[in-house]
Amino acid sequence: MCDLNGYLSLFADSTRTHTAYCSFEGNKALVRLWVVGYPRISQGLLGAEFQISYPENIIQLNTIQNTSVIEQIQGDLGSGIRVIYSDCQRQPHWLFSQNLFVNDHEFSIVELNSYHMSSCEPSHGEAQTYWNLYLNYSDDLDMLPRECIPPILTITPISSNSWGSIKALYKK
Prior knowledge:
By secondary structure, the chain is mostly beta strands. The protein has one domain (about 5-170): Immunoglobulin-like. About 5% of the residues lie in helices and about 50% in strands. The chain contains one helix and 13 strands. It has one helix at about 165-170, and strands at about 5-10, 20, 30-40, 45-55, 60-65, 70-75, 80-90, 95-100, 110-120, 125, 130, 135, 155. The strands form two sheets. Strands 2, 4, 6, 7, 9, 10 and 12 form a seven-stranded mixed β-sheet that branches. Strand 6 and strand 7 form a beta hairpin. The radius of gyration is 17 Å and the shape is elongated.
């Protein structure tokens, strides 16, 4: 159940249909994280405060903010962020997209810690996380979600000092 104002979710794709990346073929992978806000349509949203916990096997790369929704930002995703919207949002909307480099093939979770969301109406409440992002997901794991997508890029090192290992970095 979501709160009075709405909820936040993490996704593996821009269409907001997948919350997991399948087990990686290689030892390392590039994946993309999407942070999405879901307002309660009757109230809409004007902002959100939250923090994302990244597992140790993640290197955060570039982050893109949705400038058509976001007017002001204080903080960052990893240590805690406050986002103020440019106007009242009454439909689902993405806030951030972030590329992540996964260092190994162990199962891990990028976890959304929601603090609260501000509605367009004079009501405040704690937001709830609907979905976190699951990395190196396998059907052998006895948990939801059951559907996953492949990473954007997987890297299987050939040799640490070879031209082949350098070319593998750019292989799609």
